[in-house]
Amino acid sequence: MPSPIRKPQIRWHIAVFLAPAVLVYTAVMIYPLFNTLRLSLYTEVGQERIFVGLENFRTLFGDANWSRQFWNALGNNFWFFAIHMLVQNPIGVALAAILSSPRLRFSNFYRSAIFIPTILSFVIVGFAWKLILSPIWGIAPSMLDAIGLKSLYAPWLGREAYALTTLSLVSVWQFVGIPMMLIYAALLSIPDEILEAGECDGITGMAAFWKIKLPLVLPSIGIISILTFVANFNAFDLIYAAQGALAGPDFSTDILGTFMYRTFFGFQLQLGDPHMGSAIASAMFGIILIGVCLYLFGIQRRLRNYQF
Amino acid sequence: MTALELDKICKSFGSVEVLKDISLTVEDGEFVVFVGPSGCGKSTLLRIIAGLEDPTSGTVAIGGDMVNTVPPAKRGIAMVFQSYALYPHLSVKDNMTLGLKQEGQPKAVIEERVTKAVRMLGLGAYIARRPSDLSGGQRQRVAIGRAIVREPKLFLFDEPLSNLDAALRMNMRVEIADLHRKLGASIIYVTHDQTEAMTLADKIVVLRDGHVEQVGSPMELYNNPANQFVAGFLGSPSMNFLEKSVAGQTAGTILGIRPEHLRLTENGRIRGTITHVERLGGDTNLLVITDADEKLTVRLFGQYDKSVGEATALDFDDSHAFHFDQDRQRIYQSAA
Amino acid sequence: MSKARQSTGATIAAHAVLIVYTIIALFPVFVIVINSFKTRQAIFREPLTLPDSDSFSLIGYQTVLKQGDFFLYFQNSMIVTVGSLFFILLFGAMAAFALAEYRFRGNMLMGLYLALGIMIPIRIGTVAILEMMVQTGLVNTLWALILVYTAQGLPLAVFILSAFMKQVSDDLKNAGRIDGLSEYKIFFRLVLPLVRPAMATVAVFNMIPIWNDLWFPLILAPSEQTKTLTLGSQVFIGQFVTDWNAVLSALSLAILPVMALYVVFSRQLIRGITSGAVK
Questions:
Q1: For the residues of A51-114, what is the DSSP string, one character each?
Q2: In this predicted complex, what is the ipTM?
Q3: Sorting pLDDT into bands at 50, 70 and 90, what band is A8?
Q4: Domains: count for chain A
């Protein structure tokens, strides 16, 4: 006779399904992440690793040489982010709004073409623009000449005042496809009847965009903003490809990613320092965490998601 | 004055002809219902009137003005959509005022119209809520309110009750009829439900496959259908059509008798067997298969003790019978 | 043509804006590719004209193919991308199935734990990752890259796939159980085939960032034998800065495979993004 109370079986298959993903994720992502945070509390003396508490952070923020570089990179990073928010996202939204207008011919073609820069690597994008903007080749000045604006030309990537903004715009050029696609998808999910109700109310064209469509895609714009934030504060490749690890001219394009790389690996005569690198990585982690939390608890709650 | 005049409206999507040569007038203050099975083109016709579609040919005139090239908002119409189509991000009040603000109406006018509509529809308690916090019936009312405040020459309703449950639908039907009396407005109402059509309309337009089958008041259509389609579409349970069950029936013609016009008589002209009994309390419906193997329904008032398998004989008054030819058209009997 | 609803002026303006932006988007690629087929003089004299019989030259490509081992780089990129995608999809789908299908204690928590990685970039942990790869001897092997990209891709894959797996009908799985299929068979035979479109979306999302990544190849596998195409072209271009033919040809060669992939997968990619898989 079977016993009336059977102990629930251990469902091994659940563990088998979960194990590979959890193991790889934990070992290669989560553990190193915390290990990096831990390493930022150590330093190396001779061959030995010794615990120094928050000493690395004191150096990073206190030492004039380090803190100047850190704040420079952080400030540049904020400018980099600001340009994305102010240029990339509005252009993306505008393109999506135009693309989503009903009965527009060739919209598939435009969409695919505008997305092409997004699939290219930073190396290609960085060098391609470096060549195009180069005064040696002269494509940019001769094109400006063609529209009578030659006087505006400057070797932008070589000037401290312009280099960071120029690279930010190159990055905007590359990634405009992403907000465009996401907003396009959000606009398509607005039911036709709502827009038709608007038409019966006389809300068409620009008014329909500002009063109906834009409020309804705000949640998507929120998601795009936080994705942009994380991507920007973790950026490295484009600057490295275009300007090298020194993020010239004179560190004017240095952002946190390049600063961390230089510190970690060393450059020219300075030796690499994994512990200072970890300290910078920890600072980046903190900044991203603060940004994500601000978004989750401050902004996302106020954005309503509409069920259609 | 006519509220709406359609002249020879045709509409095709690609090679598919959806509407074929439709001409209609709607008088001022009239409640007109477009009814027909799904795919008959009734919603397309409504969208053409609203200006959301352009006719392939033909003209639309609202309040005497040709409006073919006039955008929807300037046609003097307001539309209530099947899905309500409320602006999800706006409160009930803002849903109603958005169009008026866009028109540039003065604040006082907007306030006054909204107050009136809110009172008429009993929306006072919900004015600050958003559509997602409202029930289906309340959303429906807001959608109607949004139409009322525009004070249009012509209201357009696109299957407005189809998303509501049965009990609520009946209430809203009465409310819409009531509203029509209060506003005295011209209304075009699209539905596939013949009960809504019969109970609401001053005038019914029966559409099928892009054609107008018949136009008339509900009782005209019920008592005097022009063809077998209209006869069968209006009335519930629907009319019985018999080709050979009645003794002495002319070959090649179809006889139509409404279920309520059949009665049980010992030597009736129709003989058959009961296959099913529906007892509704007030009525009893008998489903009968005749000896000539045709199905028919009998509607009896009151309660009857009939059982399945019982042989039965039925008869009817000749004045209540309709005759149709092989082309489904009515044959008008000369008074005999 | 719609008359009451649309004006021709607005349509023309829309096309004008889109055409201008399309030109902006494609112009740099166009300039690089056409000039890679020209002689050095022609590159500088007429950078904006198509190569003709006078200016046509393949000298850049000859230099590139002689000097850099682009075939090896391409092969490395291929191995890393395909390998990572395989593990992301397999492990991701398995974990997604466990989370979507079974109720067990800690299900929620496990889901949140795995979702953490969607927002936090793996690069933050680079210092410790390198240390680990050095200790395990994986540094300068393609396995190091495959592991890192798998870990990086898993969170979003689990998130997207479990959303899709929740839509697979319970009746179907229960019918399978009544027919005596094991849980593993239910996963591989019934569920996986049904979420294939979602798997394709995940694959396409991950493919491009993996193929284009510069950071990890630079740090974990910079040796000549393990260079990926992205790193290889970066290093090559850095060495040949003054040889414009070679640089332009190298860029064109790097663009080529990505464009080919895009042509093949763009419908899948765009459908994936617009179907709201990332909302």
A1: E-TTHHHHHHHHSHHHHHHHHHHHHHHHHHHHHIIIIIHHHHHHHHHHHTSTT-TTHHHHHHHH
A2: 0.86
A3: low
A4: 1
